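We modelled the chain as a single entity of 349 amino acids. Its sequence is:
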Amino acid sequence: MDNNISVKLISLEDIKKTKSFDLKKIIEIIENSLIAYRKDEILLPDKISQIFDNKLQTRINCMPSTLLKEGICGVKWVSVFPNNPVLFDRQNVSGVILLSEIKTGFPFAIVDGTLITALRTACLGAIGAKYLARKDSTVYGTIGTGEQAKTHFLLIKTLFPEIKTCYVASRTSKSEEAFIQVMKKKFEDVTFIACNSDYDLAAKNADIIVTAVSCQEPLLKAKSIKKGAFYCHVGGWEDEYSVPLKADKIVCDDWASLKHRGSPTIARMYEEEILMDEDIYANLADIISGKLPGRESDLEFNYFNSIGLSFVDVSVAYYIYQEVISKGFGKDWTIQNADTFEVLEDLDF
């Protein structure tokens, strides 16, 4: 009997060395995965979330799913510790993704999940903007300046190259300036404006607004949002209740998954019976598939919130795995090469 089980270890450094990822291809993969889920071609068990601090939402999540057509089962193990940057000068999100094939059930890859989490989240925000923002959007407002804020701007700018102005608001002027210094090197055609922690200023002129913050407080106010804007809600409680109540359309990646999560604004409102199922316009796949229209008017204010679906992470991880090994990167790790009972026989009892 062949007892060998080995996997490829795909590190962030391997992904960096590959240098061949097509962001528009990843967006296409994510759109296709959402359609596949709608067609019942994906298994999505419940997410398991272990929350260690309810106020901060410090947690570790276990998120399994299976891509039935591809024969790939995966699980994402991801931690979210919002106070890490302040307390330990370390990133607040880290994760890994385990991939197995479903013919024999053997694992074949362990992939860095931190980049994939950032990519997946920002790609969903970009897809939301693709269908719900005005096509002529030129002004962007970010509340938050961390990795997710940077990644969202990168992805949304990829689909909206005419963005020429970006308002930047954060808790400190130092973090705003750090964001601007990094981003202006890559986007020389964009004027970045520091808002000195004025969240209203960041939002009031923006065609596209993104809140990507680790706090749990309503920073975005409804009065600051102009007609025709698109708002991408990234994390937990980031906007006051009057923001979704003002929206012409509320769209999610999957409302059934989101509404019981507790932390996002619209999930809180659902729990408090302020928002009902019928108040949600659509899941994103309904719009991608053409079942329902996206933006229908330049005056619509549209609200998008994704909670994160593990099959999206698994789809992106599988694509990255294929790209990395095709370039000869990744490390082989043999998990098992002997009969398990032989190991037990060699032990002293």
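As a brief sanity check on the tokenised model: The two ends are 27 Å apart (CA to CA). The chain has a mean pLDDT of 93.
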